[in-house]
Write a structure and sequence with these properties.
Elements (H helix, E strand, L loop, with lengths): L65 E2 L5 E3 L4 H22 L2 H8 L13 H18 L3 H17 L8 H5 L9 H4 L1 H19 L3 H16 L14 H12 L2 H12 L7 H8 L5 E4 L2 E4 H9 L27 H18 L2 H17 L31 H18 L2 H15 L17 E2 L13 H9 L4 H4 E4 L2 E4 L5 E6 L5 E7 L7 E7 L4 E8 L8 E4 L2 E2 L3 E3 L2 E8 L4 E5 L4 E4 L11 E6 L2 E6 L10 E4 L5 E5 L6 E10 L19 E9 L11 E2 L2 E4 L1
Parallel strand pairs: 7-11, 20-25
Antiparallel strand pairs: 1-6, 2-8, 3-4, 5-24, 6-7, 8-9, 9-10, 10-16, 11-15, 12-13, 12-16, 14-15, 17-18, 18-19, 18-25, 19-23, 19-24, 20-22, 21-22, 22-23
Helix pairs in contact: 1-3, 2-3, 2-4, 3-4, 3-7, 3-17, 7-8, 7-9, 9-10, 9-13, 10-13, 13-14, 13-15, 15-16
Bound molecules: zinc ion.
The site of zinc ion has 8 residues, from helix 15 and helix 17.
Length: about 700
């Protein structure tokens, strides 16, 4: 996520030369996110009336949603429990160990005067400690763990001791280049480190009630605020992230200066000439920096970022090409873009800023209709770790950084809160179950930085990276799962994700409501809810109707009922009594997806999707080279649960054919021969599960013939 100019191919441990790809690869993705007009079929005996086309299915005006804290959600889910447990027992441990070996924790100890040595790792190494702390904090709230808590307290003590008297904290600047403080925001990631610092501090405070880290973060935020802002020093973040974190800090503390500083950073983007150009001009041309082991002048590195054309200082790499409110197409580094857009959404949520909202709508349209993978992942290119041109979505060379998927999920959650529209929750779910989950192995200690959608056998996860942003992002996002499952609005409770759990929250009038949901999602779509209220109470229960679902049905206390669906949610408003039961049936079927014809690599191919899961053909499940498998259009596809496979997955099976190799010895071309298809059985597994058995080929997009 931070190689601004080093092209990373499949293995980010080894930065390589640019991977040349056909620039015309164009894509499409069809995501089935269409607004739902749901036809109903009764479950059980009753057949409730269909609502397709009725007035109830008209789009409703935006509904502003409020967070339900992850602390109010107790997850007990067959699919997610093992992953959360692994994150707790394995991933946190593995990431802590690597943060120690890499020097990231030691840097803090040196800055604190508690150890001797030199700073190790990149400028942003501090952020990897903060992300571990954030994940560890959520985990402590979910599962008390004295050993983990002691480790957390120890790291917090180092952070506190490393902070300078005026509140400044950035170990690279403190130990390597103190004169550079705030002189090169484009390059040195002080803003990015501070953003993750604030996020960790709020997470720790919310999870444990302790202010030990929050107080340190407040001192640092106050320093930022005393330096930057209207009438003070100009500046914008080189790597966005501090904007969303400042809003988070504002929400935790009620200190409006932090919100205003976030606004200031967002408003400063896209000036002509760019703030970054001024920084660049002020640089000492001889000053060097060690960037991932390579010592060069800082100008050299910045030329790679901003001056690919020496006559044009182009800052689109970090979304500085236009003022935020004028931006239309997603450009540049994907993680930076997602963090910026998340920060814009946060500011818009707090201030009602229409200009930001309109820009976010345009940007969201741009990415979801032209620049997103079928898994929800984004950023096809290793050269800028980000966006290229419309429909450029290569498969084997897909970059699709795990952090970018996490950022995209965070952004969509914010848009969901702003609009109460299920299409954002659909995307959040798509990302979570596919692009994000594929980023970590079942063992919890191997990670993807890049996430290809096909592999000729070399793609694999790694235990760490020179730039370990993705492992440390995974370790914080998984234990925050509860944060995404439910929301509240003025008139009731919203279920965004189908995760077996129990939530206890208060409605707008202060009434406490419990809701438990149970299911075998994502394998099956029957979800049962039970309401808990001390006295009968009228409110709305809003259940997401996924965009891919057809024929969703509902019963309340055994009685089928018509559903009123708008903006992707079925709204059930009634007087709820204690122990009321709802059964919500979301048919989960296997679907073939095709891509927009301009996605060159996917032409003539299909991807398989079942519910929220995208599938792939992986070599161990198939008798011939998966690159040679063809899926005839008329082939009936079936699904079955295989409890012993990959910790228990539902697979998709059917009859395919294979592209033969007979008669090709010593030939490269020949007159077209009409070959007889050779049938064979095929089996597809969920994409998130690839690479958990052995190195081997896999493909998401499968050639399909009439
Ligand atoms: Zn990353």
């Amino acid at each position: 996520m931070y190689f601004p100019f080093l092209c990373v191919s499949v293995d980010p441990m080894k930065p390589k030369q640019a991977v040349f790809r056909r620039s015309q690869r164009r894509l499409v993705l069809w995501l089935g996110l269409s607004l739902c007009l749901v036809t109903l079929s009764g479950c059980g005996g009753k057949q409730p009336p269909a609502v397709q086309g009725d007035a109830a299915s008209q789009p409703a005006p935006p509904t502003r949603l409020t967070d339900v804290s992850f602390k109010q959600v107790r997850i007990d889910d067959k699919f997610w429990n093992p992953r959360l447990e692994t994150n707790h027992k394995k991933t946190l441990e593995a990431v802590y160990k690597k943060n120690t070996e890499s020097g990231a924790i030691q840097n803090l100890a040196i800055a604190a005067g508690k150890a001797k040595g030199q700073h190790r790792g990149p400028f942003w190494a501090d952020s990897d400690v903060y992300k571990w702390l954030e994940g560890a904090s959520y985990t402590l709230a979910l599962s008390p763990d004295a050993t983990l808590e002691a480790k957390v307290d120890e790291v917090i003590a180092l952070i506190s001791a490393a902070q300078q008297k005026d509140g400044y904290l950035d170990t690279y600047i403190q130990l390597v280049n103190p004169q550079a403080r705030w002189t090169n925001l484009a390059f040195f990631h002080e803003d990015f480190n501070a953003g993750h610092f604030f996020e960790a501090a709020v997470a720790h405070y919310e999870s444990t009630g302790k202010k030990t880290l929050l107080d340190v973060a407040i001192r640092n935020a106050d320093l930022w605020d005393s330096v930057f802002g209207p009438g003070k020093r100009a500046g914008i973040p080189g790597h966005e992230g501090i904007e969303l974190a400042l809003v988070r800090l504002y929400r935790a503390t009620g200190e409006k200066r932090y919100l205003r500083l976030a606004q200031f950073f967002i408003d400063g983007r896209g000036q002509k000439p760019s703030f970054f150009e001024g920084e660049y001009q002020r640089l000492n041309p001889a000053k060097t920096a060690n960037f991932l082991g390579e010592v060069r002048t800082i100008r050299y590195w910045q030329d790679r970022m901003f001056r690919k054309d020496p006559n044009n200082f182009d800052t689109s790499y970090c979304q500085d090409h236009l003022p935020a409110r004028q931006q239309t197409d997603v450009v540049g580094h994907a993680v930076r873009a997602m963090y910026l857009f998340s920060g814009m959404a946060d500011v818009a949520y707090e201030t009602g800023d229409k200009g930001l909202l309109e820009a976010l709508d345009r940007l969201h349209h741009s990415v979801t209709t032209k620049r997103m993978y079928v898994t929800g992942g984004i950023g096809p290119s290793g050269e800028n770790e980000g966006f290229t041109t419309d429909y450029d979505l290569p498969n084997e060379n897909a970059y699709q950084e795990t952090c970018a998927s996490i950022g995209m999920m965070m952004w969509n959650h914010r848009l969901l809160k702003l609009k109460g529209d299920g299409r954002y929750a659909d995307l959040m779910e798509l990302l979570l179950y596919n692009a994000v989950l594929a980023g970590v192995s079942f063992s919890g200690d191997q990670f993807c930085y890049v996430n290809p959608l096909a592999s000729s056998g070399k793609a694999k996860r790694h235990d760490w990276f020179l730039v370990p942003c993705c492992p440390t992002n995974v370790v914080r996002i998984l234990p925050s799962l509860g944060h995404y499952v439910y929301s509240r609005s003025e008139d009731g409770l919203w279920v965004n994700l189908y995760v077996q759990s129990e939530v206890t929250t208060k409605l707008s009038d202060g009434t406490e409501v419990k809701l438990s949901q149970s299911s075998n999602y994502p394998w099956e779509g029957r979800v049962r809810f039970k309401v808990g209220v001390s006295t009968p109470r009228e409110f709305s229960l809003n259940l997401r109707v996924p965009g891919w679902a057809k024929g969703v049905a509902c019963q309340v206390n055994g009685q089928g009922m018509p559903l009123s669906v708008s903006n992707g949610y079925a709204r059930i408003r009634r007087q709820w009594a204690n122990q009321d039961e709802i059964e919500f049936n979301i048919p989960i079927e296997t679907e073939r997806l095709e891509a927009h014809p301009q996605v060159v690599e996917d032409r003539g191919k299909v991807a398989l999707r079942r519910g929220p899961l995208v599938y792939c053909l992986e070599q161990p499940d198939n008798s011939v080279d998966v690159e040679r498998i063809v899926l005839p259009m008329e082939t009936k596809l079936e699904s079955r649960l295989e409890p012993q496979l990959l910790d228990g997955v539902t697979v998709i099976v059917g009859r395919g054919t294979q592209i033969g190799t007979e008669g090709w010895e010593n030939r490269l071309y020949r007159p077209l021969v009409s070959a007889q298809p050779q049938p064979l059985s095929i089996k597809a597994i969920p994409y998130y599960a690839w690479g958990n058995r052995q190195l081997g080929k896999f493909v998401v997009w499968i050639p399909s013939v009439p």
